[in-house]
Fold these 2 entries.
Entry 1:
Amino acid sequence: MLLDQHGRQLTYLRLAVTDRCNLRCRYCMPAGGIDFAPRSELLTYDEIFHLADVLAELGITKVRLTGGEPLARRDLPVLVQGLAERFPTLAMTTNGVLLPQYLDELAAAGLTTYNLSLDTLRPDRFFRITRRDEYAATRRALELLLERGCNVKINVVVMRGQNDDELLDFVALTQEHALDVRFIEAMPFNDDDGNHDVFVSYPEMLDRIRLAHPELVQCSEQGSSAVIFRVPGARGRVGIIPAYSRSLCGSCNRLRLTPKGTMLNCLYSTKGLELLPLLRAGIGQYELAELIQAYVYGKYATGHETERREQQGNIFASMTSIGG
Ligand code: SAM
Ligand code: SF4
């Protein structure tokens, strides 16, 4: 079992499979990209499977593939299939651009749960936010996911002056379709200006939604990273993720693995457990399990505490090298 010093059991792994991406979202990466990891420094699929066997044994039950853009990693369905055999719940966070061409293969490999990042419903804005002209592909991905009855959540990073006037348009989408929309507070992870000018807080988002929908009902789930609501009669739900305020850390059950094999207890961690050299040196399963258990035990109570103890400045690396 993976228990931390505060008695929380970790059951959920966020696995970033690459730091490369086919978009350049302003809140995530600078226009020129980042210093991407050489392929030889990424965990191979065999190394991930070795680790996955240990983590499944230690009680991880849910894995989310993320990145960078997970579909930018070659032969991703091979990884999906191997992970689906080991974990009861498998999900992916994707920008959707490549999803239409992979959807059949991913479904065959066992993946039906997706978080699709879509920050605007207006094509001209999509280009401004992502610096790439891929709105049509992402919307197509959404249509296909809904047609096939997949479990879909749309992730929206809310930014003042860029898309915060679309909050109610996204809420309307949950009234029409059986999907969840999750509004995310912008975090200072873009290797650039820290997103401070565009920040919209969780309470402000909620006030603005409540003004139009005073009948909003809260229906949160234990352990979720979002506070969840439903407009009565709506087919889907609306969540708000206080990613910067960090008010839900108390029930965190998440562990992270970066593409280069660093295990992190928290999104705000900078000091992790470097697994790649251990895996390449042929570490056995028992020894690996013990090291991971000892690392996880040290997980701090909140993201604020992690930041205080581990961060030096206030501008962090791009989210693409952590996985969100
Ligand atoms: N490329 C995939 C995608 O965009 O869905 C997966 C990786 S992305 C880093 C994972 C999630 O983190 C996305 O939903 C993205 O919107 C979110 N994200 C990235 N940078 C962020 C930031 N600075 N603040 C809040 N969320 C961020
Ligand atoms: Fe790429 Fe996702 Fe970052 Fe956008 S948020 S640049 S899609 S990794």
Note: The pocket of iron/sulfur cluster (ligand 2) is lined by residues 21, 23-25, 28-29, 67-69, 95, 117, 319-320 (CB under 6 Å).
Entry 2:
Amino acid sequence: MNAKQRLSNWIHKTAELCQPEKIIYWHGTDQEYHELLEEMVKDKKAIRLNQELRPGCFLFRSDPDDVARVENRTFISTTLQRDAGPTNNWISPKVLKPKMLKLYKGSMKGRTMYVIPYSMGPIGSKFSKIGVELTDSPYVTVHMHIMTRTGDKVYDLINQGQDFVKCLHSVGYPLENNQHDVSWPSAPIEQKYIAHFPEENMIWSYGSGYGGNALLGKKCFALRIASYQARNEGWLAEHMLILKLTSPDNKVRYVTGAFPSACGKTNLAMINPSLPGWKAETLGDDIAWLRFTKEGYLRAINPENGFFGVAPGTSYATNPNAMKTIQHDTLFTNVALTDEGDVWWNDMTPEPPSHLIDWLGNDWTPSCSEPAAHPNSRFTSPITNNPITAEEFEDPDGVPISAILFGGRRPNTIPLIHQSFSFQHGVFLGSIMGSEITKAVISSEYGRVRRDPFAMLPFIGYNIGDYVKHWLAIGRMGDPEKLPKIFYINWFKKENGKYLWPGFGENSRILKWVLDRCDNLVDATVSPIGYLPKMEDLDRNSLNITEENFNKLFLIDKSLWSQEIDLIEEHYKIYGDSLPKEMRDELDGLEKRLLLQ
Ligand code: GTP
Ligand code: SPV
Ligand code: MN
């Protein structure tokens, strides 16, 4: 059977199973997009914002129980449990499929099934891969239209025989006998399943309409399925931003950064550098696919076509480029609505408006104790809205990466920046990353520091031990001179509950040091944990921070590091036999260096 027949068979089989009222094939035009949004406004599933203040913008409010990714309902369903590994929820396909088929039976009754062909990456690039999402959610459809390259060009590729990832999504709320619909249909938590079948290039998602649970091109395909493919095919699919930097002497460099959910990727990807003469441009804010070229450089593309960004905290003071991006043609979810028909969230303006409608649809005044916008409320904008999107964004060959930054939210222990001694030591730094759990995921443990290796803990589509081995193999595949240098950053060190580092545009000072290190322009101090900057090499001109606090950002507290080693040991225990020996050696080395200090 060729790809075209496979697609049509699968659509018909799914329609028989889910029993939608009708099927709509998405061609990827703006006309379809606008018509569907109109329909959603009419059906009270979307609110048109004030078109003078926010042209082309709409607001959606989700069900209060469907506000973020559900990691405990996310599954890697491989034949062998070993292949999913110790950090993924595993169910055998033999058990999971019948369970989910039961749920899917008639699940689209009274609804339209949209057929959305899409490409992750520029159409025709050797980096790119395609998928088709069948969904009964118009919300998902308009979002996929922004977040991926959808439409006829992808049908053409399938007609030419290109294989695709089969993505099935249902909100799990069938409408029986003309039953009235709700504004955000979804299923109870115990019926939610975000299931991946990497051996079959297939994703089944049921019961949630939100973000990474439902926009299947994003975390499900571009990270979980793609990381599985990447391991087999010798490349990397990572939870990384991609940033272009031009120095005052016009030298261009590209860096990537892997930070966990809601830990600063979008903000760094859109940075407005405070250092004079530096220019930053965005290539991607969430996902990078990296491959070696014949010349031996690791090159990256952003497989996405839009931003699904965290709204709270976004302001002209912190991220002016995001504010310009969301000025028009943007979809908002779970933010607050102003009396003028505009949007608002915490810290968008120094003072909150005196009255709002909060994300739940209730009146809100500054005296209310709960935030007006949900902490994981989001904006969805086309990448072309961003005034600083780099022209290379469409380059089918991607961009060569000079440096990789790892990082997370750590109130203590981890300094503002340090550099790995080697690529292998850099892989070690990736493997020991920790971060506070944020509201990007539904959890009962917000704020607890958990290990989140490579910011990929919830996104690795296979065994974590094999994943770390794959990173080591990538290191061996590359010419050491041409491999990216690896750094570990922490913008979030705190004292008395307050951030010590101003962050945002000031992070350019750290980026400058990163590039100076890549160009061998500056020496560094050798510390037990890695190379630290020499204080004189960090540009501190007009930086509003005391000498004392600045020094605190680089302190290495031995007792905290000794606790850190215990936590890493704990984490490594989970790997069992699959922990690569190199990581054990690196940990021993770190421990010894700390003892000798
Ligand atoms: P996902 O989309 O969930 O993957 O998140 P992300 O990694 O793109 O995080 P994002 O840039 O959206 O930032 C999340 C939150 O952290 C926002 O509220 C930001 O305002 C805040 N933030 C980002 N960068 C910084 C920084 O340098 N310093 C401080 N203090 N906060 C930051
Ligand atoms: C994340 O959680 O890392 C996100 C948001 O980028 S979601 O698309 O919901 O995964
Ligand atoms: Mn993310």
Note: The first helix runs from residue 3 to 18.
